[in-house]
Amino acid sequence: MLLHSCCAPCSGEVIEAMAASGIDITIYFYNPNIHPREEYDLRKDENIKYAEKLGLPFIDADYDSSNWFERVKGMEWEPEKGKRCTTCFDMRFERTALYAFENGFPMFTSCLGISRWKDFKQINGAGHRAADRYDGVAYWDFNWRKNGGSGRMLDISKRENFYQQEYCGCIYSLRDRNKWLLSQGREKVELGVHYYGTDTEI
């Protein structure tokens, strides 16, 4: 199974559940949407450390952020779960499906859907569209939230003391998150500050 991973917190429960079922996993990290580069490196490096701890292969794909900005041009003010997010999922899953096809993976999935902040149908639609491009490649649209998956995600994140990012990832979600925080009389997002298990409130 090729697992598209966005970060260690979202992938932790997914990885452990698949490993417990005897599924052979390779992690694929392709997230050119994450901004700034400092945040991207924080999320990637933590994902690598977790993969190494579990002895799992980790594929570090290209950070072609200029391509991502070109893909979402004109969608800068789309709301969360809007057209920009669909385009973002499409871009990341298209590359994941291509890697699966070129490297003999019959199936890929993603941990993105475990987050309660994401639209599960939107993510699955992008996954199936990407898989349909290639013969012999399928997208597994398993609901990782069910049967307590979301709760276990938080438990694992606290146990592993994962970095606790405060926004989805892109510059526009950071902008909107900061706008909301300021409207609540709170400080703007601080990169690399909060960790599950040590900072319980963000």
Describe this structure in words.
- With 202 residues, the protein is an alpha/beta fold.
- It has one domain: 3-Layer(aba) Sandwich (Rossmann fold).
- It has helices spanning 8-20, 37-54, 65-71, 83-102, 120-131, 149-160, 171-183, and strands spanning 2-4, 26-29, 58-60, 107-110, 138-139.
- Strands 3-2-1-4-5 form a 5-stranded parallel β-sheet, with helices on both faces.
- The chain is globular and about 50 Å long.
- The termini are far apart.
Rg over C-alpha atoms, rounded to the nearest angstrom: 16 Å
Can you tell me the CATH architecture? 3-Layer(aba) Sandwich
Count the domains. 1
Question: How many β-strand runs?
Answer: 5
User: How would a textbook summarize the main sheet?
Assistant: 5 strands, parallel
Shape: globular
CATH fourth-tier homologous superfamily: HUPs
Specify the number of helices: 7
Main sheet: strand order = 3-2-1-4-5
Fill in the CATH topology.
Rossmann fold
Unreliable runs: none
Strand-residue proportion = 5-15%
Question: What is the N-to-C order of secondary-structure elements (H for helix, E for strand)?
Answer: EHEHEHHEHEHH
CATH class: Alpha Beta
Structural class: alpha/beta
Percent of residues in helices: 40-55%
Overall pLDDT score: 94
How are the SSEs placed, and which strands pair?
Elements (H helix, E strand, L loop, with lengths): L1 E3 L3 H13 L5 E4 L7 H18 L3 E3 L4 H7 L11 H20 L4 E4 L9 H12 L6 E2 L9 H12 L10 H13 L19
Parallel strand pairs: 1-2, 1-4, 2-3, 4-5
Helix pairs in contact: 1-2, 1-6, 4-5
